[in-house]
Design brief:
This protein is an all-alpha fold and about 475 residues long. It has 18 helices and four strands. The strands form two sheets. It has a two-stranded antiparallel ribbon. Strands 3-4 form a two-stranded antiparallel ribbon.
Amino acid sequence: MSSTRGGVNRARGRGRRSAAGARGISINRGASVRGNLQQGAAENSVTIGAGSLVQLFEGSAAKGGARGSGPESKVNGTRTKSHETGALDANSSKGTWSDRYQALSKAREKERALAIRQGLIADPNKPRSLADAITPVGTCQEMCSEFERVERVVQNDVWPEEKDQNHSAYSLTSAPPIESRMIKKFRRAAAGLEEQLPSDLRPPSVLKRTCDYLFHEVVGNATLEKVHHFVWDRTRAIRNDFSIQQLTKPEDLRLAIDCYERIARFHILSIHQLAVLPRPYDKYDAQQEREQLDRTLLSLMQYYDDCRGRLELPNEAEFRAYCVIFQLQDPIPDLEDRVQSWPKQILRDRRVRTAMVLYAAACNTMDTQGPLKPRASHLIAQQDWQLFWLMVESPKVSYLMACVAEIYFNLVRRTALNALWRSFKSNPNRSPEDWTIEALLDVLVFDEEHQVHTFCEAYGFSFAQRADGLEYLDLTS
């Protein structure tokens, strides 16, 4: 027990020194094992800054990624360097925003009628069977179609990241829109909305280029909390465009996998970096972040399975490892069955094996699982919270693996607290004054005493004071 406490305490000590750089641990989740989260001991180990975020999103094979070092790219019809914006394609319509909107709206009606006649999209007035469904193919060669750009300007729906960034010349609210910075916004499917035209959908090469722009130029030149909402929305639109087009060509699938991998890393890092109180911005929702990570990983795993034997998948083991840890509270405990279908080289990968150790150590027998009743305890649950903390702080766990594991820190703390309570109940001769605040800091792996108070009191426990003045957890409460 003492050696375990010592190891975790070393992690806690590193956390205190790196707290400024490792922001993102809320009081309810604690600043535990911050040393590893900040220092990282594996392939994704970086110091978190705007430029380094780019390296994380690109993965261990990232090249460069320093601030403003994005490659030359064609953005909304204009080939630009990373710092150039504003110019438009020669084919863009002319006139005022209102004039352009009216002209594009009329042209859009003709385009839709022609696309229906050519069988490029379905006729809403002629029902089709699922077997006869049309798979649309995107033709938009820009990050955002001209119609949407103009429509959103007219509707005053241009985001700060899409406006002139010369803040010395304009205030944030008065800055004019820069069309070359505009990126397609996510639109939820709903009854009454018309089907997207081919000119609304971006093909895989353009979606890849849009991803490059988001992670190199937007995230690479600002703090994550400042641009998170914008990138969160636009990457969701990227995934939606991929999904609608139901890709089958190997070269298209390769681009999709690359984009989904980077988007997954973005969500994983955001879960850690933005888990602060107060929230980084009003609309931030940690649960929605987890939901989008879940959907991204699910689609990515399907791509891996579908491309088996057709493409090389160099990063599959990395993301399979994230998936293993992310399944800790899955209501259907079938992970052990599913991993048996994975290729042997994936199962032998050190990251996957490390993730499986973390998974087993964090699982407990308190929370029953399964879709059927009576629900059952987890078959491989070790509920070994000591091993879990030691693994998280070890060099075997990369920065991003630690970020995923952090989601379940409170679950492991609850397991530890329950173990202390059960141990005390089974041994009535034991002194109830053993578990001081200092001892609990080690067991629960918090940095601050008030975090211990908040966590334990949430489960109905209270604290008392010993004769020597030290506070202790009153397990009789």
